[in-house]
Amino acid sequence: MGLKYRLNKLMEIMDKKGLDTILITRPDNIQYYLGIKTIADSILILHVSKKENPIVYVPVLEYYRFRDIIGKYVDVKAFSKTMKLVDGVVIEKKVDEILSEKASKYNKIGTDLRGSPIAITVKEALKEKAIDITEDIIEQRSIKEDDEIKSIQKAVDATVKGIKTAIDSLHKDITEASLAGIFEYRVRIEGSEEQAFPPLVLFKPGNSYPHNLPSTKKLGNKNLVLIDVGVKINGYCSDLTRTIPWGNIKREEYKVIEAVNEAIENVVDKSEPYMTGGEIDRIARETLARYGYDKYFIHGLGHGLGINVHEPPYLTIKYEKKIVPGMVFTIEPGVYIPGKFGVRIEEDALMTKKGIKILSSKLPRILYP
Fold it and tell me: Of 5, 30, 147, 183, which has the most beta carbons under 10 Å away?
């Protein structure tokens, strides 16, 4: 969807909440509404009002990039107390001064306080006029438009090719770090703009920890290779995990792989739209409990995917919000035997009116080199 469509969604929030204006300061929210990539630590302000054209306030070093991409539809204004532009006007104000100026003109100001890098500054400047619209923005971002789903699918497809290349590269002397590098190289060729998160390529026993980082440890003759990776394409993320048997592994390890795979199959088969995240999480836990592995499943079943690799909705025990058609999320049950080994398989999925559609179906869940 185009820029005007996204900005109109902010107008919908304004009407629903009876707001005079909206000020967005969280970079990923600004990226969502403007369709331009942002840097996480950038200080930006998007101002939307019915009284004037949308305005985005940016640091001087971001002025030309924003102007050239969206200047036709949105007024781009640079701010700085010290820096100048060759062919543009710089507002000689600090962020708090810009916000205070808005507070002097409007009474009910919607803003995304939760997660904003300048939330304290916003609260101090707007005071009682600030109305948190974080939940309204989450609701809009959680249900993906067709163009967003297509971008996520492209990221998934690139990730699948990267994982396959990594598996084809396995040999006893390869290290976790070098295997991660092979993945990164391949997905760059496939159109990846950046990694969604640092690649997790882990051998035993390092994969017994849900989160860990690659080392120079060599694969050897028998092992379990956990590859948890994701990329960004068009600003949207993928996040996939596979656990690959290498050599003649133990029967217990095969049993865990099969149980984790069955947990995913049951989630896909039994989940329906409008179930809560907690209800879907429970399907996986009950499956693993039949094999005695539920006590080793120590994280939530999944999380939303979009501009961020972790965003609402969540498939966790106490998440009581409904998973509705249009939501994209991961399904990633895991079993971690302390000090021995870990198994995780992760799919990227879309909830449809008929149930769950797996976006990563081109990559088999159980893989062998």
Answer: 183
